[in-house]
Design a protein that fits this description.
single chain, mainly beta, 7-stranded mixed sheet, 4-stranded antiparallel sheet, 1 helix, globular
Length: 129
């Protein structure tokens, strides 16, 4: 009964790269704004990138801009996150979330899990020396 399924996480050395994917079985993702979040235990979810459902424009946080790239593969009903130049600060559980109404420019706030409609189970990314 998962709305979204993330994959691609793993262990990587600093400076390395990973590709995360977010796939949907019951949603047509080209009609949704899709976001990636990461979480460290004891801290709030951090929004990383967002992609629109209408024209595919993207919004990145300052911490990942230039290193992470988000894209859609509509044929596979999948959203991808290419991550490069990874550092230990990028370690966390990465979640994708989809919503048909909250645009990428919006800041959901601390109740983000209640605001955005659909979520995956998360995938662990660990960057270590």
């Amino acid at each position: 009964q998962l709305d979204l399924v993330e994959s691609g996480g793993g262990l990587v050395h600093p400076g390395g790269s990973l590709r995360l994917s977010c796939a949907a079985s019951f949603l047509d993702l080209d009609f949704y704004y899709v976001r990636w979040f990461r979480q460290v235990p004891g801290k709030a979810l951090e929004g990383v990138p967002c992609i629109s459902g209408s024209d595919g424009y993207t919004v990145y946080s300052d911490s990942v801009k230039g290193r992470f790239t988000m894209s859609r593969d509509n044929a596979k009903n999948t959203v991808n996150l290419e991550m490069s130049s990874l550092s230990e600060e990028d370690t966390g559980v990465y979640y994708c979330a989809a919503d048909p109404r909250v645009p990428c420019e919006s800041i959901p706030g601390p109740n983000v899990r209640m605001i955005l409609d659909y979520w995956g189970q998360g995938t662990q990314v660990t960057v270590y020396s």
